[in-house]
Amino acid sequence: MKWIEVNTYEEMSEVAANIFSKQIQEKPDSILGLATGGSPVGMYKELVKRHQADRLSFKNIQTFNLDEYVGLEQTSPASYWTFMHENLFNFVDIQPENIHLPNGKTADLTAECVAYDERIKEAGGIDLQLLGIGVNGHIGFNEPGTPFDSMTNIVELTESTRTENAIYFNDPSEVPTHAITMGIQSIMKAKEIVLIAFGEKKLDAIEKLKSGHVTEEFPASQLLNHPNVTIIFGGTK
Ligand code: GLP
Fold it and tell me: Where does the secretion signal sit in this chain (predicted)?
């Protein structure tokens, strides 16, 4: 595991954008795994800038997002589909048919989980996966206690995660109780993984990860068993 300590959120975003730009330049038809939340916003801004200034092209890029809320319309203001369009997809030349997010609004959620992993496999697997980390160590929406061998599945969100994400909703009670998320095993299949975390809130989670103790009670710790992970982190108490 490679650790890169940064001084500012902007620096984290730039370092992460460098890794993604390099991947896109070296393999213009890369399969990218993408994440939502406050952590990647700066990196997406940086990628949009590079698309506009340096013609970094997403024309043949395919993306698979980690997760989506269950029960929200795709176009709901709080859906991850909307988040991704407002932060990245609307501003680059990605083809709509190359954008994949789990469908949290389908009648048959179990079938959607199986189909999502299948779609990733058919595309050739994820080349580069971006991750944030929840304060409780969740990755995607895989909460503590999730088996490491889990594939894409439906999860019940913890109170901690619902509270963390309430800022994206008009009222905390509107935060869905369930989500569909790539499993830990689905994430571990990516060829390369970049995890970004900045700020006081994330320090404990980063410290836990650094301790090297692998346990299902701290989902991100399974990344210690992956051969190609970079952690870009920073912030002080
Ligand atoms: C949500 C997402 C995660 C993300 C986490 C942290 O729970 N499902 O993928 O890592 O939020 O988000 P933030 O970057 O806003 O702290």
Answer: none
